[in-house]
């Protein structure tokens, strides 16, 4: 057994020579919400215009005979086209909005808005302050759209420029502030999950439209090659042609969705492209139009695509009812499923209406989905598909637990006194 002296340990004395406190950075200055939110919208609009101008200036390097002010004016026209008010190309007004460019502008607003709003006090975005920031950012973006319209020779369309600016700026700013905006709204239980279900239906319809477009491009590859050879673009021109067609990709998907639903697509005055019949004459010299099938009646495979509306509605209805699998009656589930299908149809109709327009004058007027047919060929099958998916979901899963049933509580309170715990003390020796 060691003695006390052997167990004694040496002592260490620590001496602090200097205290190094972490450097404290000065708080970033903040500014009132009103100018900051307006600047966020304006900065988003300017960033989108600079992006468009950069794309146009790349094309300008291949044709430097064009004066720079003319190129910048065309950039402004193209920027306005992305907001749905058309662009003047030569002497013709092209009113088909490149929805891909519109989506890109929404992403720009989504990215720029929160960066600029950091200069505002955080507490100013609480509660109804976020609504104020949303409205001010939208107004700042719309103001830029009005200025661009006035300075680019589109003053007769300045009203529509403001409307387009409000739409694009409002979507982007609302997306950026979505987390705070959701805290202000408490939807009723019957509407919860409808947004996610609608996205599922829209995603299914987009996937079907993409498959239709891909098949059309493969079948019409020879015609597409001939159109490209006739245009004979150089290296930069080929890339610009690809980028330009990609900016119109959402339009093409909306057109093919209308085709798959049976409503058909107009590719000029007196023409119709549908699964049942194709009557198309002379088409624009754009490579993607080589995917239009040859004139004539459709075949059995064309008719099979008419089930796309039911499939899209079924996807929306299944997601809408999966969140309430253990509560609600069958009627509630059917209502949710059909409602999700109808909501999907409304978005499809909206995108179809925005995707059409004119490519000039004469026969190039009224290109896009046939809306009169789509008004009933989109909601009817999607509502039926949503209700059918809800019924199938109830049959497979919902019947396992009745609507009004609650799990049986098998717990019982313990009223009897518990037995005292026995304690024992054990001594610890130094051995």
Task: Write up what this structure looks like.
Residues 401-419 have low confidence and may be disordered. This protein has helices at 4-7, 33-60, 68-81, 99-117, 129-151, 158-176, 178-182, 194-219, 221-231, 235-247, 249-260, 300-304, 308-322, 330-355, 371-377, 379-396, and strands at residues 87-89, 92-94, 265-266, 272-273, 277-279, 296-297, 368-369. It folds into two domains: 33-186, no CATH class; 194-400, no CATH class. The chain is built from 16 helices and seven strands. A three-stranded antiparallel beta sheet has the order 4-5-6, with no helix packed on it. Strands 1-2 form a two-stranded antiparallel ribbon. Strands 3-7 form a two-stranded antiparallel ribbon. With 431 residues, it is mainly α. The radius of gyration is 32 Å and the shape is flat.
Topology:
Layout: H1 4-7, H2 33-60, H3 68-81, E1 87-89, E2 92-94, H4 99-117, H5 129-151, H6 158-176, H7 178-182, H8 194-219, H9 221-231, H10 235-247, H11 249-260, E3 265-266, E4 272-273, E5 277-279, E6 296-297, H12 300-304, H13 308-322, H14 330-355, E7 368-369, H15 371-377, H16 379-396
Antiparallel strand pairs: 1-2, 3-7, 4-5, 5-6
Helix pairs in contact: 2-3, 2-4, 2-5, 4-6, 5-6, 8-11, 8-13, 8-14, 11-14, 13-14, 13-16, 14-16
């Amino acid at each position: 057994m060691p003695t006390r002296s052997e167990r004694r340990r040496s002592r260490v004395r620590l001496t602090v020579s200097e205290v190094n406190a972490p450097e404290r950075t000065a708080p970033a200055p903040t500014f009132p919400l009103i100018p900051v939110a307006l600047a966020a919208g304006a900065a988003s609009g300017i960033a989108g215009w600079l992006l468009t101008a950069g794309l146009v200036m790349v094309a300008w390097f291949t044709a430097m005979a064009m004066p720079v002010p003319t190129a910048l004016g065309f950039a402004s026209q193209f920027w306005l086209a992305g907001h749905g008010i058309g662009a003047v190309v030569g002497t013709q007004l092209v009113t088909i909005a490149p929805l891909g460019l519109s989506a890109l502008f929404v992403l720009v607003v989504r990215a720029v808005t929160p960066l600029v709003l950091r200069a505002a006090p955080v507490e100013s975005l609480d509660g109804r302050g976020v609504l104020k920031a949303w409205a001010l950012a939208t107004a700042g973006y719309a103001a830029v759209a009005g200025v661009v319209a006035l300075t680019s020779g589109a003053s007769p369309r300045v009203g529509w420029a403001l409307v387009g600016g409000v739409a694009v700026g409002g979507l982007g700013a609302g997306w950026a502030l979505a987390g705070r905006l959701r805290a202000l709204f408490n939807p009723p239980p019957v509407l919860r999950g409808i947004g996610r279900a609608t996205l599922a239906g829209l995603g299914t319809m987009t996937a079907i439209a993409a498959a239709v477009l891909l098949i059309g491009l493969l079948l019409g590859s020879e015609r597409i090659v001939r159109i490209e050879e006739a245009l004979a673009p150089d290296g930069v021109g080929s890339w610009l042609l690809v980028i330009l067609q990609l900016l119109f990709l959402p339009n093409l998907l909306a057109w093919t969705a209308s085709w798959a639903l049976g409503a058909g697509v107009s590719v000029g005055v007196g023409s119709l492209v549908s699964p049942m019949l194709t009557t198309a004459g002379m088409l624009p010299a754009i490579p993607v139009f080589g995917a239009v099938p040859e004139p004539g009646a459709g075949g059995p495979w064309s008719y099979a695509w008419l089930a796309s509306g039911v499939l899209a509605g079924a996807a929306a209805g299944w997601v809408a009812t999966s969140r309430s699998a253990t509560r609600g009656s069958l009627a509630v589930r059917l209502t949710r499923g059909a409602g999700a299908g109808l909501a999907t149809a409304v978005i499809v109709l909206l995108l179809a209406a925005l995707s059409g327009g004119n490519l000039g004058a004469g026969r190039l007027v009224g290109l896009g989905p046939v809306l009169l047919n789509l008004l009933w060929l989109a909601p009817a099958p999607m509502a039926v598909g949503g209700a059918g998916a809800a019924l199938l979901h109830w049959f497979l899963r919902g019947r396992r637990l009745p609507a009004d049933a609650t799990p049986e509580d098998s717990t019982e309170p313990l009223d009897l006194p518990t037995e005292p715990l026995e304690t024992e003390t054990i001594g610890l020796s130094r051995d």
